[in-house]
Amino acid sequence: MAIIVNLDVMMAKRKMSLNELSVKVDLTLSNLSILKTGKAKAIRFSTLEAICKVLDCQPGDILEFVKEE
């Protein structure tokens, strides 16, 4: 997949656990885990916005486009 999810990197920078982020974003642990591992096929803008607010970051800090060769 050409889109890489760097959620784990941002969580590490903010020293936040998956459980803590799950509670603050009001998203189930399993759904957040799917996103974190890069297995998600889509993300709602409202979810992305909530994650960015909690982690104090930009969407580009979480999502990265990598050109496939």
UniProtKB/TrEMBL annotation:
<dbReference type="InterPro" id="IPR001387">
    <property type="entry name" value="Cro/C1-type_HTH"/>
</dbReference>
<dbReference type="InterPro" id="IPR010982">
    <property type="entry name" value="Lambda_DNA-bd_dom_sf"/>
</dbReference>
<feature type="domain" description="HTH cro/C1-type">
    <location>
        <begin position="7"/>
        <end position="62"/>
    </location>
</feature>
<protein>
    <submittedName>
        <fullName>Helix-turn-helix domain-containing protein</fullName>
    </submittedName>
</protein>
<dbReference type="Pfam" id="PF13443">
    <property type="entry name" value="HTH_26"/>
</dbReference>
